[in-house]
Amino acid sequence: MTPDEIKKLARLARLKITDEEIEKYTDINAILQLVKEIMQEKDTSTVEPLCHPLELEQRLRPDIVTESNQRDYLQERASLANYSLYLVPQVIPPNTKNK
Amino acid sequence: MTELAQKDERRDKNEHCGQIFNASDRCSHISSTNWETIIGLEVHTQLLTQSKLFSGSATAYGADVNTQAGIIDLAMPGVLPVLNQEAVTMAIKFGLAIHGHIARRSIFARKNYFYPDLPKGYQITQHELPIISDGYLDIALDDKNTKRIHITRAHLEEDSGKSLHEAVRGMTGIDLNRAGIALIEIVSAPDLRSAEEAVAYLKALHTLVRYLGISDGNMQEGSFRCDVNVSVKPKDSDQLGTRTETKNLNSFRFVEHAIQSEVARQIKILESGGKIIQETLAFDSVKNETRPLREKEESHDYRYFPEPDLLPLVITEETIESIQKALPELPAEKFNRFIAQYHLSAYDAHFLTADHDTANYFESVIHAEAIDPKLAANWMMGELSAALNNENLSIIQSAISAEHLAQLLKRIQDNTISGAIAKTVFEAMWHQEGTADVIIEKKGLKQITDTSEIDTMIDEVIAANPEELAAYRSGKTKLLGFFVGLVMQRSKGKANPQQVNQLLIKKL
């Protein structure tokens, strides 16, 4: 991975990394190289992809409402809330082109 | 094509981006006959579960903001999702109803993006191995022909919250009541060839989820919404054109208009030598046009990966069998049965089975009083439907119950009243003036079947119109209708028209 690709990934994940750190993150190439070598060496065509490290099945929950309204409690702990809404810096509505 | 190359192409073609596209001023001069339209739909339908897909929060529509958003929906640290069994059952019901493949093992994935109405920073959805794949739905093109629309996949996912951009000045307000509500996303193959077919498919799908009882299908409330993928290609070409995606359409009419305007826009560009850019659009229903959504360039880089907080979902044969056994009668089955059992036309059967409440009402009417199915169908499509439309009511909100309508129709069947008088009675019933029998009695609307009474009226009418009588007798037999009309008028509509006819012919 190039430094630019690492920068892009960091941006997508909202991670703030410095230029010096990017250099360090290029270590990931060694890991990717290792995976590549394994994939080339072994025939994996009959191996089922691993979906989860635990060989277990998902347990299901009955469809019952178990949570009560805790809005006031939760909003006291929010960084900003008013009119019962959680408030965030203004997001430009996705359906408006520059007006 | 690499992403950078795509970006370059996008920049090159930027001349179309800022334009506003309008269907109405364009349709007139487009040679649409040379082009084929290819449409695929993605439908999000909210499941009617009591609690959310991964949490025990309530899902009632219209609750006060953020009262149904608990710690899991808010993505507090350390919380874990637990899958709702009923949502899985509903997805399987849907899969069986579209003759699809039910994955015995399916997995959940994280779709990563940042938007304030998605507190986790990712949506839990299914990417590889969806719960349902390879189904189909047959749609009626007209009374005789159907077309099979393939459904590529249907998967479970959670809904996002709502952003309110105008509630607080300079800020965006977030209501997380909707965050985490169970959805299935239903993805059709690009089998649709016109706006009309797309709407027919959407209506069939809407009917189906309501029959199955897995969604209320309420489009105004957003429980059933649609993204439309559209491309056009020259009729003689095998190569698909570049497609655009119009997001979040929440009415059948908007879907129809959005497709029409988008097809017109694309043809216009291609005919003038331009190229279509693959982009996401929004439909402005007021201006009747599609226009580009403002989106970040990287917004489609979702970096899906298997959701580590959920184990694979395993579905057993026994589960599928027991759900199969409990499936209700499906729309297509009901349609065929109505034609076979009640001898209705395809048109009537289509109307009556388009909505399961309508079908139930119909069957209640005919079974309550042994009513002729055709008579019941006519009244439901005529008077009842008009009255409901007039007040914008659904059939379950009807002011006249199925049993009460049956009592009225029974009085037509046993000749107590004529069809014309029945309309007056219906009016009165609609305004809660009582049952059919009470109104007929109170207003003295009972049909006059006493021959001597009708005879007297006929004599009076004949005596008052000697010229017409002479003309009739000299061969102008068409005047019979004139006399019938006068007698009916004199009886205030209460005489039996057939009886008047017979008696008149004798006298004249």
Structural account:
The complex is a heterodimer of chains A (99) and B (508). In chain A, a hairpin with a 2-residue loop joins strand 2 (81-82) and strand 3 (85-89). With 99 residues, chain A is mainly alpha-helical. A two-stranded antiparallel sheet of chain A has the order 2-3. Chain A has helices spanning 3-12, 19-25, 28-41, 71-76, and strands at 60-61, 81-82, 85-89. Chain A has a domain at 3-41. With 508 residues, chain B is α+β, with helices and mostly antiparallel strands. Chain B has 3 domains: 25-318, no CATH class; 329-442, no CATH class; 451-507, Orthogonal Bundle (Arc Repressor Mutant, subunit A), CATH 1.10.10.410. Chain B contains 16 helices and 17 strands. Chain B has helices at 3-12, 85-97, 195-212, 252-271, 317-325, 331-342, 346-353, 356-369, 373-390, 402-413, 419-430, 436-442, 451-464, 466-473, 480-490, 497-507; strands at 35-46, 83-84, 101-102, 105-106, 109-112, 122-125, 132-140, 146-158, 162-164, 171-175, 182-188, 224-234, 244-249, 280-284, 289-292, 305-306, 313-314. In chain B, the strands form 4 sheets. A 9-stranded mixed sheet of chain B has the order 3-7-8-11-1-12-13-14-15. Chain B has a 3-stranded antiparallel sheet with strand order 6-5-16, with no helix packed on it. A two-stranded antiparallel ribbon of chain B has the order 4-17. In chain B, helix 3 runs antiparallel to helix 4, helix 6 (331-342) crosses helix 7 and helix 13 packs across helix 16. The longest helix of chain B has 20 residues, at 252-271. The radius of gyration of chain B is 30 Å and the shape is elongated. The chains are: A mainly alpha (99), B alpha+beta (508). Chains A and B meet through helix 1, strand 1, helix 4 and strand 3 of A and strand 2, helix 2, strand 10 and strand 17 of B. Strand 1 (60-61) of chain A pairs parallel with strand 2 of chain B, so a sheet runs across the interface.
Based on the model shown, name its key terms:
heterodimer, A: 99 residues, mainly alpha, two-stranded antiparallel sheet, 37% helix, 9% strand, flat, B: 508 residues, alpha+beta, Arc Repressor Mutant, subunit A, 3 domains, three-stranded antiparallel beta sheet, 16 helices, 17 strands, elongated
